[in-house]
Amino acid sequence: MGTRRETRAAQAEAVIDRLEEEYPDSTISLRYSNRLELLIAVVLSAQCTDERVNTVCADLFEKYETVEDYATADQEELAEDISSITYYNNKAKYIRSAAQDILEEHDGEVPDTMDELTDLAGVGRKTANVVLQHGHDVVEGIVVDTHVQRLSRRLGLTEETSPERIEEDLTGIVPQTKWQEFTHLFIDHGRATCTARNPDCADCVLEDLCPSSKLDADVDLASGESWE
User: Fold this and answer.
1) Alpha helices in 82-221 (DSSP H)
2) What is the CB neighbour count within 10 angstroms for residue 74?
3) Which residues have a catalytic role annotated?
4) Spatial distance between the Cα atoms of 170 and 165, rounded to a whole number of angstroms
5) Cα 3 to the chain's mean position, in Å?
6) Are 137 and 145 contacting, i.e. CB atoms less than 8 angstroms apart?
7) Burial of 204 per CB tally in 10 Å (0-12, 13-18, 19+)
8) 178: pLDDT strictly greater than 80
9) pLDDT tens digit string along 101-151?
10) What pairs with residue 219 in β-bridges?
11) How far apart are CA 186 and CA 195, in angstroms?
12) Which of 24, 29, 118, 174 could join 50 in a cystine, given CB atoms 3.0 to 4.6 angstroms apart?
């Protein structure tokens, strides 16, 4: 039976403890070798799998090595280079524009503050958080992607729906030392077990803590809809 802990903070602690045991090597799955590559990979990863992004970036990072390469790239050629990525035309524009701003306003270096990063084309708070955490070792918040959003609601850690409001709730109950790890644990579990359409509740290490468990709950708290 899925029964959450008495408080959301206690629930978060129990969830993290179990997922740490289940995924001891949990970390970012995007491949990059510097801050610029990280920024580009994260921009490309929006609504696209990390596996696909890594495949595309393997060739992309060989062709474009510097911020100048991206800033001066032919728009159509850059779009073609990432054409297997979702929304590749828009993302090519974002990358080129961001690179130009990095050159003109940040001396060619990827900025290290939330405000400066989110001023770049195609960079929202989620992307900025990833770049800060893994590029600059600055942890200002919790990255809320689709997995974190889904699992946080299913597990009763939040009732909010927007990434920004979910992040506010999570940073209030998750210890700051766990903020970065929290995202990776939820991504790993969301991919392996707690999938969007057909979660494997019977084989889930969190089942007895989860108020959305299909084994005894009628409603998926992530969507608010009844289990089929």
Assistant:
1) 88-105, 114-118, 125-135, 146-154, 163-173, 179-192
2) 11
3) 126, 145
4) 9
5) 27
6) no
7) buried
8) yes
9) 999 999 999 999 999 999 999 999 999 999 999 999 999 999 999 999 999
10) 226
11) 11
12) 29
Residues of the chain above pLDDT 70, percent: 100
Prediction pTM value: 0.89
Which tokens sit at 107? 């001396």
User: Whose CA is closest to 71, among 27, 113, 104, 29?
Assistant: 104
Asked if residue 57 belongs to a known ligand binding site, the reply is no
The C-alpha atoms of residue 9 and residue 15 are separated, in whole angstroms, by 10
Ordered domains of the chain (ranges, CATH): 8-26+143-226 (1.10.1670.10), 35-135 (1.10.340.30)
Chain position carrying tokens 């090597």: 25
DSSP lists the bridge partners of residue 220 as 225
Q: Are the beta carbons of 147 and 190 closer than 8 angstroms?
A: yes
Sole residue written with tokens 């050629």:
77
Location of structure tokens 């929304």? 87
The Cα 117–Cα 104 span in angstroms is 14
Q: How many CB atoms are located within 10 Å of the residue 161 CB?
A: 11
